[in-house]
Amino acid sequence: MPKMLSRRNFLKILTGLGALLIPWTVLPRLEKMGSLVPRPPVKFINASNLDKDGPGEDEFPMPPAEVLARKALADIEALSHPDKEGRRAGTAGETRALVYLEEQLKLLNLQPFGADNYWQMFSIPAMQEKIINGRALFRPDEADPLLSPAGNILAVLPGQDADAYVIISAHYDHLGIYNGKLYPGANDNASGVGCILQVLRSLVRDYCQGIRPKYNIVAAFWGAEEMGFLGSKYFVSHPLFPLAGLKAVINYDTVGNGEREDFILWQVGDSWLKDIMQEAAEKNQARLELNYGGGHQSDEAAFRGTSVPAVTMLSKNWLEKNHTPEDDLSLINPEKLETACSILYTALKKIVY
Ligand SMILES: [Zn+2]
Q1: Can you tell me the distance from the alpha carbon of 78 to that of 332, in angstroms, rounded to the nearest whole number?
Q2: Which of 41, 116, 121, 245 has the fewest CB atoms below 10 angstroms from its CB?
């Protein structure tokens, strides 16, 4: 004799049917809600996808006048501020500096060119600080196997030839806090970063007025330079486009102190790029002496072993208070920053316009 359906079993069947039905009734509504969720404001653009004629006017609107008028000195102030804690690679201070740079690039409507939006992350080994000849330096800490994340940040101003590139760069990291003392790194190398940003602002203004570069201009802010050019070396071993298309690298490091007109240049190999830089300096009533670094080098060194011409421009007396807590805003000569910016702008006009 068939069992009568008990009240409890009847309720179980109802609940089961409900569970089956609910997804079908709710799903269309969820889809509708999905279309209301805002999409990310930036899109990743691969070099190979760049429009040969550059993006249209509405994809690259003219940034507000106050954004374009911002000067290197304002960036130096922001980056050497105690809230950036000396921008030591692998620390929260470094991340705050990265976020600041990302904001500046977004304000200029520049397209991200990192592996992950504007960022290219890599890992760094543990380091120990040491004072050698009065300067704080990092040495790898062999006893500590811990790796930390650090990052480069990259953006691109599209050129007419999608396969050709020029990099303008500066390292943004510094030494952090050591023995309770903040190393603000205003000259080393917030000054170089500020100059690259100021020149970018001029190039974006030109771009929006229809003056477009022949080659893609990539702005690269390297991380972990103070630990042995780790960011630029990582880029060279993990390039975001074929390095065969890279025509030149112009790097700025510690450009803000001393006499307005005195600069030096370090280079890997010997190339036409040195001549263009020296001509550009002359046009701006400045002197740019070729110098062999005396055992020092900067991110140009990462391009040794490639066939890419790479140079770093510095102040002639860049070692003044370098890698000490006294490398602060008082060391910066605003006229010198203007000269450094004009030299880069003049050189780029010759190379890519
Ligand atoms: Zn340094």
Answers
A1: 14
A2: 41
